[in-house]
């Protein structure tokens, strides 16, 4: 990952929009890091694309689908950040490093499981109707 310097503080920056552009480029670098290093993040992006396509096809309300996608992907990004931080401060085995990674992974699993459940509740009735199974 390239070394990026922090942007100047908005109050002291004579060109604040340039600072904003730099902030977006740091966030973009974070997204690229997660995409390249996290198989789970890539899988969740594919599932999100599938869910959005399905929502458009079945004419399901997009707002809850977008909220769930943002929740799962945002949490996975935070989990990736935490994993990187744990690897930085504790490259060797430590029970607290294990607890930090395991609890963060449990958070992602919990939210993803509930999102999947809500997804089934949202998509199943219109899917069954669209396929003429009921
Ligand atoms: N420094 C450490 N000390 C103690 N346990 C660790 C440490 N690093 C990782 N572990 C344990 O190994 C598990 C897997 O961690 P690892 O970093 O290899 O994969 P991960 O990036 O969490 O997995 P994934 O990317 O598939 O979500 C953690 O959940 C934790 O239980």
From TrEMBL:
Transmembrane segments: 64-82, 103-124
Binding site for a divalent metal cation: 83
Locations listed in the record: Cell membrane
Residue numbers binding substrate: 32-35, 57-60, 76
Molecular functions per Gene Ontology: ATP binding; di-trans, poly-cis-undecaprenol kinase activity; metal ion binding
GO cellular component terms given for this protein: plasma membrane
Protein name per Swiss-Prot or TrEMBL: Undecaprenol kinase
């Amino acid at each position: 990952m390239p070394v990026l310097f922090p942007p100047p503080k908005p109050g002291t920056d004579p060109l604040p929009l340039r600072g904003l552009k730099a902030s977006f480029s740091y966030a973009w670098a974070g997204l690229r890091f997660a995409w390249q290093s996290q198989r789970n993040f890539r899988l969740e992006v594919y599932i999100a694309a599938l869910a959005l396509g399905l929502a458009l096809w079945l004419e399901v309300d997009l707002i809850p689908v977008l909220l769930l996608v943002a929740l799962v992907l945002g949490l996975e990004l935070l989990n990736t950040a935490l994993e990187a931080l744990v690897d930085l401060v504790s490259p060797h085995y430590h029970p607290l490093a294990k607890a930090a990674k395991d609890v963060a992974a449990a958070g992602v699993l919990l939210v993803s499981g509930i999102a999947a459940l809500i997804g089934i509740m949202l998509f199943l009735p219109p899917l069954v109707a669209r396929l003429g199974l009921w």
